[in-house]
Specification:
heterodimer; A: about 110 residues; mainly beta; seven-stranded antiparallel sheet; B: about 400 residues; alpha+beta; five-stranded mixed sheet; about 20% strand; elongated
């Protein structure tokens, strides 16, 4: 992996990695996922191991997501989130931030 | 009898006396080389009494004994003689330990019965075979264990007749202690310091040592004292440890014309390495060490031993290491023949290669290949991962793909 070059990326040449992929999720009345359509099958969620919320970038295109780390029947673990602004579900592997924001990059 | 000890007393001096008969009756020093800085490798017993010792500078030794004759025996010749002696005994006994060049301990259980002889006849025949084959004086002793056999061979040498006749000395098990009792403490395989201290304590024979309580010896000399007490009583639990068979491969060639520059030597060495590595039984094996020897026109031999940092089966790598040595070589005469010996057979270490071979040249080649690929396909197809906002909580902001090489 290459260290951050501290220069603005040229538009059109950079492809974001790890974009959210739409996924079909059946949620209960409280908004918690109960079944996930995964690899052609509707699998029940047997456990929710973690949950967190991200509200960010309200100053440009607002982001409001509610993440769930779920375990499906069969043992598969997925990180899914509900886009609270569009009311849509996505699957997206999650990595916590590796470094703090640089004071010069704001 | 269980164990026998065969030795050529003062092996190097005996070799020198055999090679140079004119040294008979004279004190002899075997030196490492006839140059300034030469050292004493061995000396005859009379010189040892006058203060000459192995490792001493030859100049100093000669200043102590001006009448001494100096001889040189090459290490290679000495090793060859010792090996011939060992091979002779190995043909007789299945368990042979080479304690030092020309000094062997070996198992003799059942061998006499196998040969249809008495033990005395068997050992006498073996001693005679070793003596006639090597042309060296050979002392032989046998006993119930290694130390008794060792002491018996030492005693056999000390008891040789005035005519120089050496007979094997067999010590029956029940007579071991009485046999050892009058022997001097110098036969004990202990440190030189301990031997000196034993003398200072007035302990001259093994009987003197055996008469003391074990605890007293241990209090003075520690574990070595305890072992000396056991040996003085004829008790020794040490075993014969045979040498490990080491595989090696040797190849040699005569050069078509005497060579005095390094280039033809490198060409010949490359051919030798290839031949050695193609040895059918050992193909694919890795080697730790190479011995390169050149026979010179004037009859001398020049050699270099290389130990590879890692075992290798790669001929080019061997040549690379050898080349550095050969280029620094200054030869007194042209080379007429080469010999290469590979030893230290083992398996090659595994190596984890980097995903991208390092080096600016390889990197440039890679960039060029990727550019050509992009040009042919019209759009980037090879990317690298860069950190964009590694601090971001939003996963798709953290990393991105950018075209490789741009």
């Amino acid at each position: 992996m290459v260290a951050h070059p501290r220069t603005s990326a040229r538009p059109g040449t950079v492809r974001p990695l790890n974009l959210p992929r739409p996924i079909a999720v059946e949620a209960d009345s409280s908004g918690q996922p109960v079944r996930v359509f995964w690899q052609g099958r509707l699998l029940p969620v047997i456990a929710i191991h973690d949950r967190w919320r991200i509200d960010d970038e309200w100053w440009r295109e607002e982001i409001a997501r509610r993440y769930f780390l779920v375990e499906l029947q069969g043992g598969r673990r997925l990180t899914i989130f509900q886009d609270l602004l569009r009311d849509a579900w996505y699957e997206q592997p999650y990595e916590p931030p590796r470094r703090k924001r640089s004071p010069m990059s704001a | 009898m269980e164990v026998a000890c065969l030795r050529v007393p003062n092996f190097l001096v005996a070799l020198a006396r055999r090679e140079f008969p004119q040294l008979a009756g004279r004190p002899v020093i075997v030196a490492s080389a006839r140059e300034d800085g030469a050292q004493v490798r061995a000396c005859s017993a009379s010189l040892a009494k006058r203060g000459v010792a192995p490792g001493m500078a030859l100049r100093r030794a000669l200043s102590l004994c001006r009448d001494a004759a100096v001889a040189t025996i090459s290490e290679r010749d000495a090793a060859r003689e010792a090996e011939a002696l060992r091979e002779l005994v190995e043909r007789t006994s299945p368990l042979v330990e080479e304690v030092a060049p020309g000094h062997l301990h070996f198992d003799v259980r059942g061998l006499a019965r196998l040969a249809g002889e008495t033990e005395k006849e068997f050992l006498r025949d073996l001693q005679e075979a070793a003596r006639s084959r090597s042309g060296l004086p050979v002392a032989l002793g046998a006993g119930k264990n290694v130390f008794v056999a060792h002491a018996a061979s030492a005693a056999a040498w000390l008891r040789r007749g005035s005519s120089g006749d050496l007979l094997p000395l067999l010590v029956p098990a029940e007579e071991s202690e009485s046999f050892l009792a009058p022997l001097p403490v110098e036969v004990l395989p202990v440190s030189r310091t301990m031997k000196v201290r034993l003398r200072l304590f007035g302990l001259r024979t093994l009987a003197d040592v055996a008469a003391l309580p074990r605890a007293a010896l241990e209090a003075q000399f520690g574990r070595e004292g305890g072992r000396a007490w056991e040996l003085a009583h004829g008790e020794d639990d040490s075993r014969i440890i045979p040498r490990r068979e080491e595989l090696s491969v040797s190849v040699a060639m005569e050069l078509p014309a005497p060579a005095s520059t390094v280039e033809p030597l490198l060409v010949a060495t490359r051919a030798l390495i290839r031949r050695a590595l193609e040895e059918r039984a050992l193909r694919g094996a890795a080697w730790r060490q190479a011995r390169w020897e050149a026979a010179l026109e004037n009859g001398e031999t020049v050699g270099r031993t290389l130990t590879f940092r890692e075992p290798t089966a790669d001929g080019e790598r061997m040549l690379f290491v050898l080349r550095q040595k050969l280029e620094r070589l200054s030869l007194p005469a042209s080379v007429v023949g080469l010999e290469l010996t590979l030893s230290g057979l083992c398996t090659e270490y595994g190596h984890q290669q980097g995903f991208w071979p390092t080096g600016p040249r390889r990197w440039r080649e890679l960039l060029e290949a990727v550019e050509q690929l992009h040009a042919r396909l019209g759009e980037p197809h090879v990317f690298r991962i860069v950190e964009v906002e590694p601090w971001s909580r939003i996963p798709e902001r953290q990393l991105a793909l950018v075209p490789f090489g741009r």
